[in-house]
Amino acid sequence: MAPLSKCLLLPIDGTEEALRPVEFLARLYPDRSRVSLILSYFAPPLPPAYQGKSTSPEFINKRHELLRSREHNISSALEQAKKVLVRAGFLSHTIEEHVQEKQISKAKGACLLAVRKMVDAVVVQKRVSSGLEGFLRDDSTRGLLEHCITSPVWLTDGTIDASNAAVCITTERASLRAVDHAAFMLSGTGARITLLHAARTISHPASSSASYITAELERWLMTPEGRKMKPFFMESHGILNSEGIGDERIDITVLPSHGKVASEILSFCRGQGIGIVVLGHSRPTGIKDFLKGSVTKKVLAELKNMTVWVNQ
What we know:
It is a single chain. This protein is an alpha/beta fold. It has helices at residues 21-28, 57-87, 106-117, 131-137, 139-147, 173-186, 215-221, 224-242, 261-272, 287-292, 295-302; strands at residues 6-12, 35-43, 95-101, 121-125, 153-157, 164-168, 192-199, 206-209, 250-256, 276-280, 306-311. Helix 6 (173-186) links the parallel strand 6 and strand 7 (192-199).
């Protein structure tokens, strides 16, 4: 059975930076015919002085000038985006445009649109240069994580290897939502998937193919922590299989952790050539709680030449 089509929302603003995820999408999906994209552009409102009505010729002329300039910017941004997508092999009839005046933050607007259009993910370029301090200042990233409750968010950075993905597994249901998302979005791509867990109760990495569990990994699965994790590994394995992802494409890895889970995950992924990291983020009581401490936050802050898919 052929994989179902994917629908992605790509917010644009007329900059080349906003279109950088296209290269990754083209690499991830060789069959572009099964991917549809929605280009969203949030146009700035007119200055307050020109939002009302007036019979003054000067007012009317200036207002028309501002509107013409805005329409030109909208048209240019959409035309540029469509050219980039078509050059990358995406089909013009699968590209939809959505333009609206910005009345709330772009991040919140994109998340609301994602819900309305029932997209599979919102795809954006990471706009923080580096470091945790930069992440804390990035209102668009924070806004997406705050408002995109039902739509996963993909944050991309640099040149990304789309042939390998890691899904981080914990004893939370959010992990299984992440597996479900990864299974659907990676079905039909050929990408290899590692089910990854970081544990304090193992001294060195234990890896195994899903088709044959090694004695070393089996011994860890018999430990107290391993017994808690085993049902989540088994359910994750079943979810991947249900989307047509065979055992030959699935690995299970348990990493030793010394409390720096984000760095340990990213270090492992870089060493294994994994470009896609999928996280199930349990939503805190508020964005302030999220900013106080989160593996997701730290992974995003250290992200380089990878994409992180955040599911809540």
